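User: I'm writing a tutorial on reading structure tokens. Could you give me a worked example: one chain, its sequence, then its tokens, then a sentence or two explaining what the tokens reveal?
Assistant: Sure. Here is the example chain.
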Amino acid sequence: MTSPAHKPIKAPVFVDNAVAAARPEQYIELVIDARKVLGDWKASLLAHELLDSNGFIKGDEDLSESRLEKREVIRTRLAAGQALEKPILGIGIFDNVEIGSGSDVLATLVIEGICELPVHVRKSQSREFDSFKV
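And here are its predicted structure tokens:
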């Protein structure tokens, strides 16, 4: 995807996403390789906001102002050891990964060199994520 800009000072701290926490019977947590997820997500109609046309994570200079602000907040929280919400992944209508929540967290952590992270997926789709697990 991309090479890390620099190594973070602290390992990330994660909390459950509020949506998944409100419906624990519907979601499970998996630890995934975020690079593989982003590689599949590039087929999404929403991926252009964070990935370039080749599927690589956009650099800071190529992001919209709002996306850059989100990235900076994530970096600040990471450096301070503050919690980040676990992303929520699903399978879209084109049988590719969709990131329902947390795409900025996922992409920023990969840039920072953190590629193994916990995510929430629907229990009914968990088998479709076997190839993304670490």
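What the tokens reveal: The mean pLDDT is 92. The longest strand covers residues 27-33.
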